[in-house]
């Protein structure tokens, strides 16, 4: 074979090899090797703070599962079959007490607690406070209790500071969300017909199932107990509410000791705020006093039902103005049962002071 023939064969062979290589690259099983992982830098300070809060707090946040006699469930609970519902709870102390919302355990016939570890135990309802939408449970037995959450204060909160929530939205346990405190001193009606004052508003994502869980500050301290959302759809719309920890810290010890919380009052029925506004009255219109109540004994006058003439209009408590019933309730709670309060009332166009005893009106209801 001459050189020319050899050269032609070599060229043909090269062309065939190139063609074959092109086809080989199209074979599915011969894809490229996995790419090397690029190492990331250190977490940002904000990320580190989030991780630290979750790792420190989440073991002390539990799922509260209840069984009720009836199937209908609260809108703030994640429901299951046969009347089962779930919410969130907070390990309160080393004695096995867990704090949650009253509406989470309302009408419950059985209660169970599931820890972050997956351990599930039975619990009993120690006490409830519908006026504050709070309840205390006690764990029957557990191998290792998580540590209680560190308590902060709600008295020095600022709008704009970071807030974190950990809970069980839609039954998805150990979920964390964050945002800011959107507003303070909101008023939130409860199922008992009263209002909780100084409620915290937050845009931290809160959904059904979060009820009874912690609202935390950037130090991982408890600053509130999540209780409700404002949403046309029933899911998070950026407006959530939490009971201030200062109220929680006042109510829970009474629930643990007595199973209930005193309801400070003086024994009056007041007119709706809209009525006072319509007739131009500044303060609380006393419609009537309860028979045998401190208000009746102190001589407070209600509306004359035969003539419609106003009696007393309460304008201040211990010198501090009141405009609505929740203002009076706040003052009486601060003063406490067993004390006396000085009411400033407007009667027949003139102001006068009346001293009235504060009693536990819940005992007579």
Report on the structure:
The chain has helices at 3-24, 45-57, 102-105, 245-258, 273-279, 294-297, 325-335; strands spanning 61-68, 78-79, 84-91, 97-100, 108-114, 120-129, 134-139, 162-167, 175-189, 195-202, 214-216, 222-229, 240-244, 264-265, 268-270, 284-289, 312-317, 320-321, 340-347, 350-357, 359-360. With 365 residues, the protein is of the alpha+beta class. The protein has three domains: 57-139, Trypsin-like serine proteases (Thrombin, subunit H); 162-258, Trypsin-like serine proteases (Thrombin, subunit H, Beta Barrel), CATH 2.40.10; 264-364, Pdz3 Domain. The strands form four sheets. Strands 1-3-4-7-6-5 form a six-stranded antiparallel beta barrel. Strands 8-9-10-13-12-11 form a six-stranded antiparallel barrel. Strands 15, 16, 17, 18, 19 and 20 form a six-stranded antiparallel beta sheet that branches. Mean pLDDT is 86; it is low at 71-82.
């Amino acid at each position: 074979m001459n050189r020319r023939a050899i050269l032609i064969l070599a060229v043909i062979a090269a062309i065939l090899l190139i063609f074959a290589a092109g086809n080989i690259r199209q074979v599915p099983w011969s894809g490229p090797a996995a790419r090397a992982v690029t190492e990331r830098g250190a977490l940002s300070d904000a990320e580190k703070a989030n991780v630290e809060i979750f790792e420190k707090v989440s073991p002390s946040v539990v799922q509260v599962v209840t069984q009720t006699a009836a199937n209908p469930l609260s809108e703030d609970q994640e429901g299951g079959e046969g009347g089962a519902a779930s919410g969130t709870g907070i390990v309160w102390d080393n004695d096995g007490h867990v704090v949650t919302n009253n509406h989470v355990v309302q009408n419950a016939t059985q209660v169970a607690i599931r820890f972050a570890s997956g351990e599930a135990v039975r619990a009993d309802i120690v006490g409830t406070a519908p006026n504050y939408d709070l309840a205390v449970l006690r764990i029957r037995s557990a191998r290792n209790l998580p540590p209680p959450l560190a308590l902060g204060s709600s008295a020095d909160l600022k709008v704009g500071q970071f807030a974190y929530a950990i809970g069980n939205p839609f039954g998805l346990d150990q979920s964390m969300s964050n945002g800011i405190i959107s507003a303070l001193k909101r008023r939130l009606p409860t199922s008992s017909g009263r209002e909780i004052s100084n409620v915290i508003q937050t845009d931290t994502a809160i959904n059904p199932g979060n009820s009874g869980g912690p609202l935390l500050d950037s130090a991982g301290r408890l600053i509130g107990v999540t209780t409700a959302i404002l949403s046309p759809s029933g899911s998070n719309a950026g407006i959530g509410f939490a009971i201030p920890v200062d109220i929680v810290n006042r109510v829970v010890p009474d629930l643990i000791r007595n199973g209930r919380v005193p309801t400070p009052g003086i024994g009056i029925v007041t007119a709706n705020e809209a009525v006072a506004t319509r007739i131009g009255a500044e303060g609380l219109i006393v419609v009537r006093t309860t028979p045998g109540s401190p208000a009746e004994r102190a001589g407070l006058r209600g509306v004359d039902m035969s003539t419609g003439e106003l009696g007393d209009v309460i304008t201040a408590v211990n010198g501090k103005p009141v405009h609505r019933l929740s203002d009076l309730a706040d003052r009486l709670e601060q003063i406490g049962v067993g004390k006396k309060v000085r009411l400033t009332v407007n009667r027949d166009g003139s102001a006068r002071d009346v001293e009235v005893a504060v009693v536990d009106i819940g005992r007579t209801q």
